[in-house]
C-alpha cells in the first residue's frame, strides 16, 4: 500500500500551505493537516497548539488503513471520507488524489456541511498540486535513469 514519498519543491509546499490555510478560514475550522499515507506530516495550519501533530499523522494513516480493510470486506475500494464526532471537537478525514490524507478539526463554530463543502474545493486544489508533484518526480526519475545509463567509458569517450 505504501507509495513513494512525495518530494516537494518550495513552490508546491507553499501552494499546499496556502490551500490548507484558506480551508481553515473558509470552513471556520480549528486546524487542518495534510498527511501522507505512510503517516508523515506534510503540512499543518490553524491552531495546532496542544495537538501532537506527529501522533495525529500516524494515527490518521492507521485509521485510513484500518477502514480500507473494512471497505474491502464489503466490496469497496476504500472509504474516501471519514467523520468522527466528539463532545467538543470533530474530525473530518478525506483522501486526496489517492496519495495523501486531509484532516480537518472543527468544533461547534462550524458545521459538517460547511466543512464538507470547503473540503471538496480544497481536495480539488490539493489534487492538482499533488499531480504536479508526481509529474515532477516522474520527470526527475526519468532523468536519473538516463544518467544511470551513462557509463565511465561513455564519459571517457566524450573527452578523448
Polypeptide structure, described:
A five-stranded antiparallel beta sheet has the order 2-1-5-4-3, sandwiched between helices. The protein is built from four helices and five strands. The termini are far apart. The mean pLDDT is 88. The chain has a single domain (10-151), classed as Beta-Lactamase (2-Layer Sandwich), CATH 3.30.450.30. The chain has 160 residues and is an alpha+beta fold.
Summary, kept brief:
This protein is an alpha+beta fold and about 160 residues long. The chain is about 50% helix and about 20% strand.
* CATH H-level superfamily: Dynein light chain 2a, cytoplasmic
Under CATH at level 1, the class stands as Alpha Beta
- Calculate Rg over CA atoms: 19 Å
Silhouette: elongated
Number of strands: 5
The tally of domains stands at: 1
Give the spatial strand order of the biggest sheet: 2-1-5-4-3
| Assigned CATH architecture | 2-Layer Sandwich
Q: How would a textbook summarize the main sheet?
A: 5 strands, antiparallel
Strand content: 15-25%
Distance N terminus to C terminus? 48 Å
Q: What is the helical fraction, as a range of percent?
A: 40-55%
What's the SSE pattern? HEEHEEEHH
Number of helical segments with 4 or more residues: 4
Q: Remind me, CATH topology?
A: Beta-Lactamase
* Secondary-structure class: alpha+beta
Average pLDDT number? 88
Task: State the low-pLDDT regions, or none.
Answer: none
